[in-house]
Amino acid sequence: MTDASAMVRAFELQGGACAAFGSPFSASLLQRAARDIADDGPLAGLVIPWAQASTREAMSEAVPLRWLGCAHDMVLAGEDCVLAAAYPTPERAGDADAAWAAARIAMSERRVRFSAFMDHEPQTNEVRRSVCLAPGFLTIALETGLPLRVFEIGASAGLNQLWDRYHYDFGSVGGWGNPASPVRLDTEWRGGPPPIATEVTVISRAACDRKPVDIRDPVARTRLKAFLWADQFERLARLDAAIAMALAADIEVEPEDAVTWAARQAAPRAGAATVLFHSIFWQYMPADSQEAMTAAIADLGAQATAAAPFAWLRMEPAPGNLASIELRLTVWPTGEDRLLAHVHPHGASVDWGGAP
To answer: What are the phi and psi torsion angles at 314 (to 5°)?
Structure first.
């Protein structure tokens, strides 16, 4: 397969994923984008930085989503009225043909704009991932009987820091959280119930990201929203509500490398369960950083005791399969690692296997 063919295939695969995850408009744009690369159109020039990438590498680097996010960002920022007129709104369906025609012109006329946006990996900060993470935190609280200290790496804007202040609907197995919360998260729950009777107290929370999103900056907020698919209006509204809560809570995300930050911040402490967590972050780390992070986590685990346990909670693709997302938990001092659930990447479903 040629390099161009690898990138074409990546855009086709991402289009298929968008269609499967309920975004037909995004899927249609990505299909047209794939053909443009194959025909050596304006998009072919924008993906040159990944010219040597395999299809798997292009997907891991989220190249199709970088491009899709830039087009949406221009719409949200009011920079292209022709493109915006073709995008979907809650009142009207989008016109993928017209949107593609406008995007193709924009790529030719505003190449620098697209290149600059695509230079940074996506940061979606999908709030509904908390519906997958929360049962993990509940499990840790139940099994340790301790309050939690939570530390998030790759936190983007830090919206999942407030997981304990949201309201959750786990379907037939029940609900959990603040019933008055403006952020309400539901999911298609399969399997036994999570430990929803457990009381959880978070005594401290902190987060880091290599390039955190400053939600106090309206430009940064728009960029964050741009990575959500334009025809998924519930996700867009949920993000707005979570941003409002984070601003009110004065959530901070420190700009630091995850490895050094975790080693400095997340050492176990007696009287609390220390939890290091992340979601859809690991794949964006270079291999050497993954190795260093794994070593740092092992070092933190080695410091744990029964009075000062350390937990590593993560929602990430299964090794070798980006399409299968797992919720896994490792708790020290025993170092027991287990698969708690298979989950939807946006939190739409949870197949729970964790012990109640």
So the answer is: -145, 145
